[in-house]
User: Which sequence fits this backbone?
């Protein structure tokens, strides 16, 4: 038993360190404040120009009209926000930060909420960022995490930003960087994407809608969730009225206004889609790489949007049914500026343009559109276009260089089996007489023609050297060429023998107006150093001048009369065997345009969706009831386009040739392959030209020895002779039956 005097043990005295527990939060807060001070002192606030924000490139035509954009996954355009209507930025302030003009960049309540969240859970679960903080987060930190560390940095940078820039500047930074859905970054990109207009044109109703979707753009898409989208618009309009930005009447009118949403960019439409895709993939991307999509470049091109629309209208006016053939058109100036490109009949379809471009990717047999290269080779060899050859059909070419693979003689035929008497090379070109050209290439040698074609940039079907075969004269299977390649070569004729470098770009500038790329022959100098591009001389000027004069006769009275637009025009038709491909390549002195027409090849079927393909050429030959030749649809499309494209421009003449080639051939008739001539068409054997329809060479001709010498000319006295003019070419009368639709096919071996 314990006595009453026994003392019970007392309780353990309290530990002294517990008395200082309250000091820890104070120290933590103090350390945090010190950290904030240090961060504030040393943190760097990047200027907006130092912030690398992906920005789409804009592409303009030669007159500064916007064609379209090149963007990656994002679309961004920078706009001077001083130009914005007041209701645009007021809608954003009412929706996102009503006290924007009062605070210093940070909401104190948001900071306290962040600190409390750190003590209780370490994560911030609530918003409350000001417009300044949102800009810092999106443009500077680019960090979507919700940690206290990130929030503290955001607050510090926001405070410094407010000291460095005015409220109006900060609001502009924000409006140019905020994400608004549809891949659009910034108010300008959003206005274009949602409403197909500039931000300066946004109505109050449209501005309220865009401001309302900022917190979650994909959740308030008007086409997917119209009710939720309109509720967001109503909320913003109500806030604007409550804050005194708009009257109740304007609010009511805006609530009743219909929102007309533009088609989403995913719909895949684009002005001049084939040109834009070729420009992106083949021209700019190899030079600029990823910066093409992120650096806000201003790309000024040589394309003419008016001519582009005229080219598309010309094609669609003649080919309207889906079952009808494809078509391509390329228009180039003599210096190589590309004015129009139609790469297929789905003019604005991006998917089709990315699949297959019939203007650039489509390498086809050129048919008789290749004949001018044989004639030009002969002119370069000194042979006059007034040289005469017989034109039977068929004709046997006995030269071993032209023999078939099995050693038998080559026996080409004329289109439709038409036979001709003895005619000049000028007349043979006008009427596209195959058998005359077969004799000509045998005379000068196929290696001569192959060499000239390679100098003009042509290659064999596999990209190899051009095979030196006599069928080159008729555009056979030894050369495959795209409409763009053909246009470049014919532009070389127009440029008097200097083949141009194709130049789709005038110049490229960055966002600050600094010139990055320029083609000196296309535009006045904008850069310190100019990369000048000049045509590469392929043949002598006079040779090209003679050729151009001959080719004008094709349009005046030959196979391409459908292309006559009342101006001096030089051109050539081309039609391949079984009418598979049809061409017309024609020029006026200011512009060269090539038109191709045909069906896609079966091997390209996957690249050309929703088009008819022809496994059997016979089933596909008639179009609108006729067999297509270069002188039919292609020549008509050419004329429809060129009539509009050059309307109002001066009428110019081709250069008059100087001295003509002085070697006039008088070739004996080739042996007939059979005793009896073909009875299908028999025009007069020796056409008699009218008094002055032909070349009159200045020098006396020096004919090669021939079993059939030319008769001695009978002098015609002239009482008052004038100085001999430069020789000119006038159309020779056609020695062929008018019924022949286009003797331009190449039924070579």
Assistant:
């Amino acid at each position: 038993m314990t006595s009453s005097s026994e003392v019970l043990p007392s309780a353990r005295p309290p530990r002294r360190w517990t008395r200082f527990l309250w000091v820890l939060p104070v120290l933590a807060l103090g350390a945090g404040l010190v950290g904030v001070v240090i961060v504030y002192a040393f943190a760097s606030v990047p200027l907006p120009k130092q912030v690398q924000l992906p920005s789409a490139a804009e592409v303009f035509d030669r007159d500064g009209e916007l064609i379209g954009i090149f963007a990656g996954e994002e679309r961004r355009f920078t706009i001077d926000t001083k130009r914005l209507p007041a209701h645009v930025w007021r809608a954003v302030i009412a929706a996102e930060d009503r006290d924007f003009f009062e605070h210093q960049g940070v909401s104190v309540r948001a900071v306290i909420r962040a600190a409390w969240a750190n003590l209780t859970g370490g994560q911030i679960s609530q918003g409350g960022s000001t417009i300044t903080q949102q800009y810092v987060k999106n443009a500077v930190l680019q960090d979507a995490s919700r940690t206290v560390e990130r929030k503290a940095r955001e607050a510090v940078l926001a405070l410094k930003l407010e000291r460095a820039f005015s409220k109006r500047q900060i609001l502009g930074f924000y409006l140019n960087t905020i994400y608004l859905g549809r891949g659009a970054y910034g108010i300008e990109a959003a206005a274009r994407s949602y409403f197909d207009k500039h931000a300066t044109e946004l109505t109050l109703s449209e501005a309220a809608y865009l401001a309302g979707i900022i917190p979650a753009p994909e959740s308030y898409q008007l086409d997917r969730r119209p009710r939720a989208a309109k509720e967001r618009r109503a909320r913003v309009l109500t806030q604007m009225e409550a804050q005194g930005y708009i009257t109740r009447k304007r609010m009511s009118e805006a609530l009743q206004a219909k929102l007309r949403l533009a088609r989403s960019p995913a719909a895949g439409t684009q002005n001049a889609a084939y040109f834009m895709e070729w420009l992106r993939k083949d021209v700019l991307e190899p030079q600029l790489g990823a910066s093409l999509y992120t650096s806000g470049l201003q790309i000024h091109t040589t394309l003419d949007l008016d001519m582009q629309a005229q080219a598309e209208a010309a094609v669609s006016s003649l080919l309207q049914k889906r079952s009808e053939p494809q078509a391509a058109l390329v228009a180039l100036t003599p210096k190589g500026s590309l004015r129009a490109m139609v790469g297929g009949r789905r003019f604005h379809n991006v998917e089709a343009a990315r699949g297959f471009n019939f203007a650039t990717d489509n390498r086809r047999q050129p048919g008789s559109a290749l004949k001018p290269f044989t004639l030009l080779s002969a002119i370069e060899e000194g042979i006059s276009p007034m040289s005469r050859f017989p034109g039977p059909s068929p004709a046997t070419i006995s030269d071993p260089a032209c023999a078939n693979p099995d050693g038998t003689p080559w026996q080409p035929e004329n289109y439709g089996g038409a036979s001709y008497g003895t005619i000049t090379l000028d007349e043979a070109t006008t009427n596209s007489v195959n058998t005359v050209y077969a004799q000509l290439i045998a005379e000068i040698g196929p290696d001569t023609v192959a060499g000239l074609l390679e100098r003009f940039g042509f290659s064999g079907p596999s990209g190899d050297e051009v095979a030196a075969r006599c069928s080159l004269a008729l555009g056979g299977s030894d050369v495959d060429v795209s409409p763009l390649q053909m246009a470049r070569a014919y532009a070389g004729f127009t440029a008097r023998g200097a083949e141009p470098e194709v130049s789709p770009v005038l110049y490229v500038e960055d966002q600050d107006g600094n010139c990055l790329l320029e083609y000196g022959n296309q535009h006045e100098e904008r850069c310190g150093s100019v990369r000048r591009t000049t045509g590469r001389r392929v043949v002598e000027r006079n040779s090209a001048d003679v050729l151009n004069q001959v080719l004008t006769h094709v349009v005046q009275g030959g196979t391409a009369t459908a292309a006559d637009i009342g101006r001096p025009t030089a051109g050539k038709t081309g039609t391949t065997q079984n009418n598979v491909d049809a061409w017309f390549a024609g020029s006026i002195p200011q512009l060269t345009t090539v038109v191709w027409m045909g069906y896609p090849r079966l091997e390209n079927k996957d690249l050309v969706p929703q088009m008819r393909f022809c496994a059997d050429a016979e089933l596909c030959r008639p179009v609108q009831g006729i067999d297509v030749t270069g002188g039919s649809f292609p020549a008509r499309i050419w004329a429809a386009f060129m009539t509009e494209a050059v309307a109002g421009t001066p009428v110019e003449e081709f250069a008059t040739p100087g001295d003509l080639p002085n070697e006039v051939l008088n070739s004996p008739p080739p042996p007939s392959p059979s005793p009896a001539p073909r009875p299908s068409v028999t025009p007069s054997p020796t056409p008699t030209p009218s008094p002055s329809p032909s070349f009159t060479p200045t020098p006396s001709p020096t004919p090669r020895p021939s079993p059939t010498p030319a008769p001695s000319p009978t002098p015609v006295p002239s009482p008052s002779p004038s100085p001999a003019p430069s020789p000119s070419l006038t159309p020779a009368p056609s020695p062929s039956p008018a019924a022949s639709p286009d003797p331009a096919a190449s039924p070579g071996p």
